[in-house]
């Protein structure tokens, strides 16, 4: 029996004129995870999430979310909750007005959940959204997305502008919402501490391409830090090597002398460093060819 997928991309490509935002991306994410989508600025993270939310369409390739084309119809839209980086709210509307609007727009709206969560994070229903702090706006936007009772919550750098205390509160609420709804979630962030705190599945996106994806525990178990020349270890893939240190993938590394486990940060930075080198070489080759 096949595992249901929350997101399935095949050769997914998105171009804006001559600029390639995503290139031939293949990705299969099973349901039931909190997915951390990481990569440098400009890697294509927001583009991927906007495609998944149905806000834009692909240039080529295919993408399905919860088994259907993104935003295929009103019923599918109700199954996905999206919180953008700038947590868009209506500044002149009160917190209570936002909840009323959510109820009007969403047939499956859970008013009891929304009101309870607003009270738990200390929001005044009469307060105008434009007078809320950044952390309060983020909490309100997440509550509106979750009160739809979606099967998938998508967060595009939602805590990027928050101070550490507000960010911690936001991440705590995110985990609570996912657990209460029995939903899946995709969280884009350049803060690895956020990903390490709440995510059990990782996708590294660099230079418009998927570099690696999988459950965090499995990825950490299959990658190793080694000291010395990784070329002497047969049966491993060298992800990154510099100054006598390397990150490699493969069980053979366990038998190597001076081999040890990698941290999540080391794993992500290894793939980002490799992508930076290969991307620079590709761009140089293209320039020479022209």
TrEMBL record:
Nucleotide-binding listed as a keyword: yes
PROSITE patterns associated with the record: ABC_TRANSPORTER_2
Pfam families with a match to the protein in the record: ABC_tran
Entries under SMART domains matching the protein: AAA
Keywords in alphabetical order: ATP-binding, Nucleotide-binding, Transport
Domain ABC transporter: 7-232
Entry superkingdom: Bacteria
SUPFAM superfamilies, sorted: P-loop containing nucleoside triphosphate hydrolases
Single GO term (MF): ATP binding
Name of the protein: ABC-2 type transport system ATP-binding protein
Organism: Micromonospora eburnea
């Amino acid at each position: 029996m096949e595992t249901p997928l929350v997101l399935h991309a095949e050769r997914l490509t998105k171009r804006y004129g001559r600029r390639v935002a995503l290139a031939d991306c293949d990705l299969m994410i099973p349901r039931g995870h909190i997915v951390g989508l990481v990569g440098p600025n400009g890697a294509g993270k927001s583009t991927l999430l906007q495609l998944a939310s149905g806000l834009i369409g692909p240039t080529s390739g295919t993408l399905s979310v919860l088994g259907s084309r993104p935003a295929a119809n009103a019923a599918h839209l109700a199954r996905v909750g999206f919180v953008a980086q700038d947590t868009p709210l209506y500044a002149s509307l009160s917190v209570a007005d936002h909840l009323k609007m959510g109820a009007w727009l969403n047939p499956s709206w859970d008013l009891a959940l929304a009101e309870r969560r607003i009270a738990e994070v200390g929001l005044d229903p009469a307060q105008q959204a434009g007078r809320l702090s950044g952390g309060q706006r983020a909490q309100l936007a997440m509550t509106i997305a979750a009160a739809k009772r979606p099967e998938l919550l998508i967060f595009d750098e939602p805590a990027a502008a928050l101070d550490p205390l507000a960010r911690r509160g936001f991440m705590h609420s995110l985990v609570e919402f996912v657990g209460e709804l029995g939903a899946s979630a995709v969280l884009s962030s350049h803060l690895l501490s956020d990903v390490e705190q709440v995510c059990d599945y990782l996708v590294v996106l660099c230079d418009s391409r998927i570099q690696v994806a999988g459950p965090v525990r499995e990825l950490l178990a299959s990658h190793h830090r080694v000291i010395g020349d990784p070329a002497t270890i047969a049966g491993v893939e060298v992800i990154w090597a510099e100054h006598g240190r390397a990150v490699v993938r493969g069980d053979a590394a366990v038998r190597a002398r001076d081999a040890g486990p990698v941290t999540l940060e080391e794993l992500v930075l290894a793939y980002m460093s490799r992508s930076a080198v290969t991307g620079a070489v590709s761009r140089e080759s293209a320039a020479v060819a022209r």
